[in-house]
Design brief:
Helices cover 37% and strands 15% of the residues. The chain contains nine helices and ten strands. α1 runs parallel beside α2, α2 runs parallel beside α3 and α6 runs parallel beside α9.
Length: 274
């Protein structure tokens, strides 16, 4: 199952969706686990995608959380150009399925009416903020919003009634693995309306993302290339050298700021007996 982050507590998602929705290509990967066979990876128009997703959702007997994100966002520009994101929101709302989203792009604010409609069932958005330092953000994610703009995304989403949180992601060793930055992100996000926070302790890479990561390290941080070769010499995941300090900062600051450290719970609507 492909899912960006663990589903809410006590709720096991059987449907996981990942797509390069905010990238430059309209390709989508649709994965359906038991009781549905895994669907083929395909490139679809928004209309065809809505039809296919709608058919897949009908097979699932009770609403399961659909998790949507974009896996090539770390070092690339983004834009809602494919039309798949709008189709995703409309189809989930129409089918009564909850949805969890993660993004670094302020373009999501243009879809506020659809997000609010989805929120009538369940809609949670985690705004990705890998650093509180704009110089780091500019180098890591050129073309994406800076820190204050991402915090403003949280404020607007939460003010609109969307379950909103912050996701400290990606965390790259020697680049943005800074405990003080973690604390600043969490405190500022909470003050702006965030109710939950997420943090992946391990940095994991697939063969495809590994090549992308190392290519960008060589371009943007050439001095770190030998350290990354050492970190990933014989493995596809690492905690990083500053793991304990980051974990302590997260586990200490998030609760103090009133942030839950998981996606908000989804409670399916109770059916009337009458």
């Amino acid at each position: 199952m492909k899912i960006l982050t663990p589903p809410p507590t006590g709720f096991q998602s059987k449907f996981g969706f990942t797509a390069n929705l905010f990238g430059n290509t309209p390709s989508a990967e649709v994965f359906v686990e038991y009781p549905v066979q895994k669907a083929e990876i395909c490139e679809l128009s928004p209309d065809d995608y809505a039809k296919k997703l709608g058919r897949e959702l009908k097979v699932i007997k009770k609403p399961e959380i659909i998790s949507a994100g974009f896996t090539h966002e770390i070092f690339t520009e983004s834009g809602f150009k494919s039309g798949l994101f709008e189709s995703l929101l409309k189809t989930c709302s129409r089918s009564g399925f909850p949805i969890a989203l993660a993004t670094s792009s302020s373009d999501i604010l243009d879809y506020m009416p659809l997000l609010q409609r989805a929120a009538s069932v369940y809609c949670a958005v985690a705004v990705k903020i890998p650093s509180a330092d704009d110089s780091v953000l500019q180098l890591m994610q050129p073309g994406f919003p800076l820190f204050a703009q991402r915090i403003e995304m949280i404020r607007q989403l939460s003010s609109a009634g969307i379950k909103t949180g912050v996701w400290i992601y990606p965390v790259l060793p020697y680049i943005n693995d800074d405990a003080d930055s973690f604390a600043t992100i969490l405190k500022t996000a909470a003050e702006s309306g965030a109710t939950f926070a997420l943090y992946h302790k391990k940095l994991k890479v697939t063969p495809e993302s590994r090549a992308n990561l190392f290519n960008n390290i060589n371009i943007r941080y050439p001095q770190l290339a030998p350290k990354y070769e050492e970190l990933f010499a014989d493995k596809n995941e690492t905690f990083g050298p500053n793991f304990m300090a980051l974990s302590n900062a997260f586990s200490r600051t998030a609760p103090r700021s009133g942030l839950k450290t998981e996606w908000p719970d989804f409670k399916p609507p109770q059916l009337s007996l009458f």
